[in-house]
Amino acid sequence: MKKTLLAIAVTGIMAGCSTAQEEPSNPALETTPEKVSYGMGLVLGERMGNDLPDLQMEQFLQGIQHGHAGEDTNKRLTREQIQEALMAYQQDLQQQQEQQYEELAKKNKDAGEAFLAENAERDEVSTTESGLQYEVVEEGSGDKPTAEDQVRVHYTGELIGGEVFDSSRERGEPVTFGLNQVIPGWTEGLQLMSEGARFKLYIPSDLAYGPGGNQAIGPNETLVFDVELLAINPGANESGNEN
Fold first, then answer.
1. pLDDT tens digit string along 82-128?
2. Residue 9 C-beta-side C-alpha neighbours within 13 Å
3. Active-site residues: which are they?
4. For 185, which DSSP code?
5. Can you point out the beta strands (E) in the chain?
6. Rg of the chain's alpha carbons, rounded to an integer?
7. Do residues 48 and 10 touch, judged by C-beta distance below 8 A?
8. What domains can be seen in the chain, in order of their start residue?
9. Which H or E run includes 76?
10. pTM of this prediction exceeds 0.85
11. For 15-37, what is each residue's pLDDT tens digit?
12. What's its EC (predicted)?
């Protein structure tokens, strides 16, 4: 978990303000201090909705009262005890997040393997020794690149459910990059293509971004790319982009 203990203490302590509680009587909102006080409570409550869903409202309100009073005699926990509780909460939350991430990674892995197994049965699809699958949409007539070459391509990247996560076509501008600078599935797949060809690449997660994922790509996602190889080594002035 990336949140610091300070972030939990400040922005995380009000998360349960949406917890069902008896609605208090409506105090006046006429003076500036009254409005500011209400506004501060409202903003903190909104910010905490996702940080501490199990907030205990009674204990929380008492903590505010004791803290605002500024009298040590009223305080029921020492700073050390509060720190210990925050650390324990952080550890528990991190364990929960890790477990959820592992479950998602397994789910994506299983779904990808099932997709590739079914996809491999199609006559149009070929499978390499590494497990990469490809489908020839249009043959090219030029040379094939090596792993040391620069290539210029148009592509659309999708998850196996059909969700587009990246597309040079949508941006209206092809990209240029070195084949040794991208995911293994691209490095291998582009070397199968002749200049001018268009392939669909079905890339297992271990040839893509693996259990770590990447931005919009979850852990162990199998990826589908519709790729056009426009040019090999198009020129030193072309800007490089890493996929």
1. 899 989 988 998 999 999 999 999 999 999 999 999 999 999 999 99
2. 12
3. 155, 165-166, 183, 209, 225
4. H
5. 125-127, 133-138, 150-159, 164-167, 175-178, 198-203, 223-232
6. 27
7. no
8. 5-76 (no CATH), 126-232 (3.10.50.40)
9. none
10. no
11. 334 344 445 578 899 999 999 98
12. 5.2.1.8
